[in-house]
Specification:
The chain has 22 helices and 17 strands. The protein has 517 residues and is an alpha/beta fold. The chain folds into three domains: 195 residues, Tandem AAA-ATPase domain (Rossmann fold), CATH 3.40.50.10810; 189 residues, P-loop containing nucleotide triphosphate hydrolases (Rossmann fold); 46 residues, no CATH class. The strands form four sheets. The protein has a seven-stranded parallel beta sheet with strand order 3-4-2-7-8-1-11, with helices on both faces. The longest helix is centred in the last third of the chain and has 20 residues. The radius of gyration is 24 Å and the shape is globular. It starts with 14 loop residues before the first helix and ends with a helix.
Length: 517
């Protein structure tokens, strides 16, 4: 009997996945920027298998978030014949004694210390890196003739800040590996390389294709015109165009709306729903907002408190009891829990009415995102329960088994229900059973918005269409948050060449939708 191919999937590779694998194989290093759900992980496994079959690379370092460790390990076991080991936890060093397998799967944070150790040598003032145990093992493998492929999953979420210790550790390790393997392959997987600024994309490409990128000084002199008092950059238009032209050859871009992909996904409808506060909530919001007064510097905790009041005034009571906000504690002492409890929440009222029509009226499932997991989501859970709507709560405060029970419970539930999640659920989980998604408040960044909406916009969805709705409370800080998110959306569109792409919903279309909402 013939041995199975190194990569084997019951679905094979879709044409777009074949294209991405071919790009990565030929390009050697770069960013694979594909919308969520297209199958970046499948492309990475197919690439690793193809390189193994060709004898080009025989050691893969796969770096991911902690909540994706098990999934990656299971996928390599299910879809490839490559032996894989998870390098994580207190006993992780034991496996290194037996040599490195074909695939090592670890997290960004674990490798921060295991790739590089930073210390201050005697007589020096600054810290100097030296190889950690994993880097030592990789260098020893290279010395034995093994060739390394490095794959970063959701690279932009972890390695966009070049001043962080995390970035410096990985940058040092890649530089050391390139000393012994000048054509080292480094592939970054991401749906959104631009989170806050063009510097995000530059920092990622400095790791993946350093020879193709300018120095930091040259980049800043050409691209950044100036910075505001908070260090935020203002860009020189010509410099941005030059940088984009340098970056594009090293980026493979695939949208869900591209002709070869669009029929694989449900049609996505995006909308903004602007709401007006009731008189009591508005009065309380304005009283708290007035605390800023004539102060030049932002009052500590005020912006977060205003966002919570917009979401649900009672959320302040949780922040006060948890001791996470000094301002919240002062507000609760001043107004009292009973008063907060008496204040209505316009958004909660709208959400219950909207979800009632979806769950009771249409018999569909829905997902609701809120950044305020511990303080807002339990309030929404109670409001939905009173309406006879079953919900599953998923937050970072829950332990792993609790989160898994919520996820599997929602997916397996035969009845219409709601998945209430903080941004702990924005990546790493797929919920194709849902046909509606609500952003209870806008994501702070375009990256987070993309990840949120991608939870139900999956290639495995059986729905003809899905609807994604963002609630925005008028006259509050939420309006500025939407504008900031859209500005970052514009940067991503420009960086990736998405502006004007056929069928693509970009910043221009979203701003138009927001203005008419």
């Amino acid at each position: 009997m013939d041995a199975p191919p190194v990569f084997h999937s019951p679905h094979g590779l879709f044409p777009c996945q074949q294209e991405g694998t071919g790009f990565a194989y030929a390009q050697r290093s770069g960013l694979l920027v594909a919308d969520t759900g297209i199958g970046k992980s499948v492309i990475a496994m197919a690439l690793a298998a193809l390189l193994a079959e060709d004898g080009a690379e025989d050691l893969v370092l796969l770096v991911c978030k902690q909540n994706k460790l098990t999934e990656w390990h299971e996928d390599f076991g299910a879809f490839t014949t490559l032996p894989a080991t998870v390098h994580h936890g207190p006993s992780r060093m034991k496996a290194l004694r037996h040599g490195l397998p074909r695939v090592v799967i670890s997290t960004y944070e674990t490798l921060r210390a295991d790739l590089a150790r930073f210390s201050i040598p005697k007589g020096k003032r600054s810290r100097v890196p030296t190889p950690g145990p994993v880097l030592e093992a990789l260098l020893a493998a290279q010395a034995d003739g093994r060739r390394v492929l490095v794959v970063y999953d959701e690279m932009s979420d972890k390695l966009r800040n070049r001043s962080s210790q995390l970035y410096k550790s990985h940058g040092y390790a890649l530089a050391q590996l390139r000393r012994h393997q000048k054509d080292l392959r480094v592939i970054g997987l991401t749906a959104t390389p631009i989170s806050r600024s063009y510097e995000d994309g530059f920092n990622l490409l400095r790791l993946a294709v350093p020879a193709a990128m300018p120095t930091v000084k040259v980049f800043e002199d050409a691209v950044i015109k100036s910075r505001d008092d908070y260090g935020r950059p203002r860009y020189a238009d010509d410099g941005v165009e030059q940088f984009v032209a340098l970056a594009r050859p090293h980026i493979w871009r695939k949208r869900k709306t591209d002709p070869d992909v669009r029929d694989l996904f449900p049609r996505r409808i995006e909308e903004f729903r602007t709401l007006q506060m009731g008189r009591e909530q508005e009065r309380f919001y304005d009283e708290v907002a007035s605390l800023q007064g004539d102060f030049q510097e932002p009052v500590p905790g005020l912006h977060a408190a205003l966002r919570q009041i917009a979401a649900h005034p009672m959320a302040l009571a949780h922040s006060a009891s948890a001791g996470t906000s000094q301002l919240a504690m002062e507000l609760v002492r001043a107004y009292g829990v009973d008063h907060l409890q008496s204040l209505p929440s316009r958004k909660t009222e709208e959400l219950v009415e909207y979800l009632s029509s979806i769950v009771h009226g249409q018999g569909d499932k829905a997902v609701v995102f809120s950044q305020f997991g511990p303080s807002v989501l339990p309030l929404l859970e109670e409001a939905l329960r009173k309406e006879g709507i079953r919900s599953y709560l998923y937050t970072g405060a829950l332990d792993g088994p609790e989160r898994e029970r919520a996820r599997t419970g929602f997916r397996a539930d035969p009845e219409p229900c709601v998945f209430l999640t903080s941004d702990a659920g924005k990546d790493g989980i797929n919920l194709p059973e849902a046909t509606y998604l609500v952003e209870y408040e806008s994501a702070l960044t375009y990256e987070t918005r993309t990840q949120r909406l991608g939870r139900i916009d999956r290639i495995t969805s059986q729905a003809a269409s899905i609807t994604c709705t963002t609630f925005v409370l008028q006259g509050t800080v939420e309006e500025g948050i939407v504008e900031s998110m859209l500005a970052r959306n514009e940067m991503a569109d420009r960086f990736l060449g998405d502006t004007g792409a056929e069928g693509h919903v970009g910043a221009v279309q979203r701003r138009r939708s927001y203005l008419v909402a």
